[in-house]
Write a structure and sequence with these properties.
The protein contains eight helices and ten strands. Strand 9, helix 7 and strand 10 form a beta-alpha-beta unit. Helix 2 packs across helix 3. The strands form two sheets. Strands 2-3-5-6-7-8-9-10 form an eight-stranded mixed beta sheet. Strands 1-4 form a two-stranded antiparallel ribbon. With about 240 residues, the protein is of the alpha/beta class. The mean pLDDT is about 95. The protein has a domain of about 160 residues: Alpha-Beta Barrel (TIM Barrel), CATH 3.20.20.70. The protein starts with a strand and ends in a 6-residue tail after the last helix.
């Protein structure tokens, strides 16, 4: 029997599976169905989904729902987009349990993206994923260096030509850390996106101009956060 997946639970009790547009990264603007998993192995200070892992601030029993891969698939099938974004939390904590869901979605012609912090190698899940959105965390995230940056794992992702690295920058000096990660992993700049840190439109605007100029100058791709600009810091959109 397939093991149940741990999903984020929306207020009201339903799993956090919803249709929207991809708000950031290489597929920004694409209609997508999001499947938000619970639990994470990092603790980013600016995380906008802390309800998936911070059990000091949130009640795990209220925030987490166990659901079979079959039930998750049925919820996905009920929504229009054929691009599925598996996000979290950190999805690869549940990578083995995700294989039955990913295989079922592949068989039905769905395209799968996985959002990950890049600390856990994909291994079993890799054959089923069309795009990896890898977001290594910089020092301003508040995570310890050895926990947030695993060069050997990032090199494994960099070897996949369907992997995109996405870095959240708070200030121009953060680019030094980005350069160090790319040097250590061999990941190409043309598949590297830089995104401003921000949970409001004002915060994004305040960091976007200098970051876009840096991208143009240094050969990186720029990403904003469309969902924040459209709906603010709101769940399920």
């Amino acid at each position: 029997m397939n093991e149940p997946l741990l999903l984020s639970r929306m207020p009201g009790g339903r799993p956090e599976i919803f249709a929207s547009i991809q708000g950031e990264g290489a597929s920004a603007g694409r209609p997508s169905t999001f499947v938000r998993l619970a639990v994470c192995n990092l603790q980013c200070s600016w995380c906008d989904t802390a309800y998936t892992w911070d059990w000091r601030r949130y009640d795990r029993g209220e925030q987490v729902l166990a659901l079979s891969p079959e039930a998750v698939a049925e919820a996905v099938f009920a929504l229009p987009p054929d691009n599925v974004v598996i996000t979290g939390g950190e999805p690869l904590i549940q990578r083995r349990k995700l294989v039955p869901l990913a295989a079922t979605l592949n068989e039905r012609g769905y395209r799968i993206e996985v959002e990950t912090n890049g600390t856990i190698a994909p291994v079993e899940l890799a054959p089923f994923v069309h795009q990896w959105n890898v977001s290594p965390k910089l020092a301003h995230s508040g995570n310890a260096g050895l926990a947030r940056i695993r060069p050997e794992v990032l090199r494994a992702f960099a070897a996949h030509d369907n992997a995109y690295f996405k870095f959240v920058l708070r200030e121009p000096a953060d680019i030094a850390e980005v350069d160090a990660v790319l040097a250590a992993t061999g990941h190409p700049r043309e598949r590297t996106l830089l995104m401003p840190e921000g949970r409001t439109a004002a915060e994004l605007a305040g960091r976007s101009v200098w970051l876009a100029e840096l991208c143009a100058r240094e050969g990186f791709r720029f990403s904003t956060r469309l969902h924040i600009l459209l709906w603010g810091d709101k769940r399920g959109v």
